[in-house]
């Protein structure tokens, strides 16, 4: 897989840059949340409609050598700014160590993102990837895909605790992925349908959800094995349905996975209401996507039903929706 933005193959004469650019996109998990951490497979979709661009350059205002400042477009909250600033400093240090960067001038990073944070769409992983690629571009250093993944994954572990790696991989993928035990492979898409993403307006917490589920497993003997086994069954069946073009089966499996997540107390009343609204509007299936305790709902629908599904989702409280054509992901067009 070719990096969307990197310095691979750039002639030495072009490597004295004043600005480096890196880009990444959002992702959505079809099935496999949480179980993937325990070795089960997960299915992930790239979401090219939602992107983050990082621009890294030397500060025009000077500042201390080796220092770092950052800016985000839009109107991020103080909490988001503080989290991004802290993560950015650690990530920048890790990239500089890996690339062998010595003393440097003050660095400024500008982040322009359309990925809402805390929604299970890979905002933190996409931001980290964009920054990693921007810094490599700025420093004029070659960066392989394995190294980019490793750096993003390190940032994800710091942000969320024990991260499976699926986010770090999916935010750089150009096609749907089957991810398991640290390895991934691209999948062909046989289903001609739309995945509607609906933002509940409430941020989730992957770290909190992971801890909640782990505590539940600790209290109930055998609960982990039951959850992981069922999740793996559903995900493998969904992989076959996705590649073989069985949209009704894929939709049914999505809904079954939502019930699995809900039974583990990872859903919320608002999320459940959005799932029910999507199903009543004619969706083939719907589920929470991401770590849980908030975030987004993903609904599979036929194109002719999409308008009604989107309308019902907004009536049920969705603050934003996005439509992802599955067939559109079965190409390298973007």
From TrEMBL:
It comes from the Bacteria. Its main location: cytoplasm. PROSITE patterns: GHMP_KINASES_ATP. Pathway: Isoprenoid biosynthesis; isopentenyl diphosphate biosynthesis via mevalonate pathway; isopentenyl diphosphate from (R)-mevalonate: step 1/3. It is found in: Cytoplasm. Residues 239-317 form the GHMP kinase C-terminal domain. Its EC number is 2.7.1.36. Coiled coil: none annotated. SUPFAM superfamilies: GHMP Kinase, C-terminal domain, Ribosomal protein S5 domain 2-like. One of its GO terms (molecular function) is mevalonate kinase activity. InterPro entries: GHMP_kinase_C_dom, GHMP_kinase_C_sf, GHMP_kinase_N_dom, GHMP_knse_ATP-bd_CS, Mev_gal_kin, Ribosomal_Su5_D2-typ_SF, Ribsml_uS5_D2-typ_fold_subgr. This is mevalonate kinase. It comes from Streptomyces fructofermentans.
């Amino acid at each position: 897989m070719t990096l969307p933005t990197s310095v691979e193959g750039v002639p030495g004469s072009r490597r004295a840059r004043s600005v480096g650019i890196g880009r990444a996109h959002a992702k959505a998990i079809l099935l496999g949340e949480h179980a993937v951490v325990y070795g089960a497979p997960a299915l992930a979709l790239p979401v090219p409609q939602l992107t983050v661009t990082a621009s890294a350059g030397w500060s025009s205002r000077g500042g201390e050598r080796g220092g770092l400042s950052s800016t985000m477009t839009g109107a991020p909250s103080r909490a988001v700014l503080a989290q991004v600033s802290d993560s950015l400093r650690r990530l920048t240090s890790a990239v500089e160590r890996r690339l062998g960067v010595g003393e440097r001038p003050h660095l400024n990073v500008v982040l322009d993102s359309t990925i809402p944070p805390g929604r299970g769409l890979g905002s933190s992983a996409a931001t980290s990837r964009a920054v990693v690629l921007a810094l490599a571009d700025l420093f004029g250093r070659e960066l392989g895909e394995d190294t980019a993944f490793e750096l993003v994954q390190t940032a994800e572990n710091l942000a969320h605790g024990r991260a499976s790696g699926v986010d770090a991989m999916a935010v750089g993928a150009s096609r749907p992925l089957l991810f398991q035990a640290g390895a991934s492979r691209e999948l062909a898409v046989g289903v001609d349908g739309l995945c509607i993403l609906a933002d509940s307006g409430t941020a989730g917490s992957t770290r909190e959800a992971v801890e909640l589920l782990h505590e539940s497993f600790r209290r109930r003997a055998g609960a982990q094995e039951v959850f992981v086994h069922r999740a793996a069954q559903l995900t493998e069946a969904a992989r076959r349905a996705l590649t073989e073009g069985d949209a009704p089966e894929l939709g049914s499996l999505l809904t079954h996975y939502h019930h699995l997540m809900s039974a583990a107390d990872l859903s919320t009343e608002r999320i459940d209401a959005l799932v029910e609204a999507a199903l009543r509007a004619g969706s083939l299936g719907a589920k929470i996507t991401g770590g849980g305790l908030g975030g987004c709902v993903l609904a599979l629908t036929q194109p002719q039903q999409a308008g009604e599904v989107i309308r019902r989702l907004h009536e049920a409280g969705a603050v934003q929706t996005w439509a992802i054509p599955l067939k559109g992901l079965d190409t390298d067009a973007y």
